[in-house]
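Is this the right way to post structure tokens for a design question? Let me know if I should format differently. Anyway, here goes:
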């Protein structure tokens, strides 16, 4: 991001009046550019894909889901996008969930206008907005998740782990069958068993499961 280019911001809140207020606030700053608005998870994901913001200011509560879900989808599309969660309360569970989904941090709705602007600037620079107490809770949650997923992964056979890797790479059942010299029906049965063992419902969840585990694998002795 050069100094001449404004920070591209997407506003996500289901209240139009809130969005109008945020837009009016941000557009008074020449270094900030509001490139879009959204009032739901679906709109947020669509607008993020269309407008390619650098920072998304995201309400936690949306009519068709949560800002955490929208954050996860947007960050899966483009990991370079920074997401700031806008919340009325410093709810530890919601904050930890947001950071686990890839958010840079959160800003309370009661925050003064300058505080929000500084948060956007910091997020655009790639800085975390978390205080040490919240960061500690996130790390502990990650450790618990790693331990739980290690146990679940141990229930998979070597072949199932291999197929899980290929699913995470985005390969179809047919492509996996060709690579492993199996029938497509056999691969389908394997995938169903993997999802059942991991208590998941969709292939995309299986890919996310493996993506979450990989940092811990790299760190193991």
């Amino acid at each position: 991001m050069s100094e001449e280019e404004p920070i591209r911001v997407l506003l996500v809140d289901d209240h139009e009046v809130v969005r109008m207020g945020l837009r009016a606030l941000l557009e008074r700053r020449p270094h900030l550019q509001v490139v879009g608005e959204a009032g739901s998870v679906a709109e947020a994901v669509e607008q993020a894909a269309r407008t390619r913001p650098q920072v998304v200011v995201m309400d936690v509560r949306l009519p068709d889901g949560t800002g955490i879900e929208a954050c996860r989808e947007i960050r899966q599309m483009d990991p370079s996008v920074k997401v700031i969660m806008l919340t009325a309360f410093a709810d530890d569970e919601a904050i930890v969930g947001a950071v686990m989904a890839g958010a840079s941090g959160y800003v309370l709705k009661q925050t003064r206008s300058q505080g929000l602007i500084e948060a956007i600037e910091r997020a655009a620079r790639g800085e975390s907005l978390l205080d040490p107490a919240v960061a500690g809770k996130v790390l502990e949650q990650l450790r618990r998740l790693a331990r739980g997923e290690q146990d679940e992964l141990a229930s998979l056979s070597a072949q199932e782990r291999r197929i899980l890797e290929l699913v995470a790479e985005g390969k179809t059942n047919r492509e996996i069958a060709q690579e492993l010299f199996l029938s497509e029906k056999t691969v389908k049965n394997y995938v169903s068993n993997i999802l059942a063992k991991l208590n998941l419902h969709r292939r995309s969840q299986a890919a996310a499961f493996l993506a979450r585990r990989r940092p811990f694998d790299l760190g193991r002795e």
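Format looks fine. Someone answered above. Worth noting: The chain has a mean pLDDT of 83. The CA atoms of residues 163 and 191 lie 7 Å apart.
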